[in-house]
Amino acid sequence: MRRIRIKLAYDGGGFHGWQVQPGLPTIQGVLEEIVSGIEGQPVPVAGSGRTDAGVHALGQVAAFTLTNPIPLPNLRKAINRLLPPAVRVLSTEEVPTDFHPRFDAKAKTYEYRIQRAEVCSPFEWPYVHHYPYPLRDDLMAGLARVFEGTHDFTPFAAADESDAEARSKVRTVWASVLERQGDTLVYRIRGSGFLKHMVRNIVGTLIEAGRGNVTDVTVLPARCGATAPAKGLFLVSVEYVEP
Question: Would you call 163 a catalytic residue per the annotation?
Answer without folding.
Answer: no
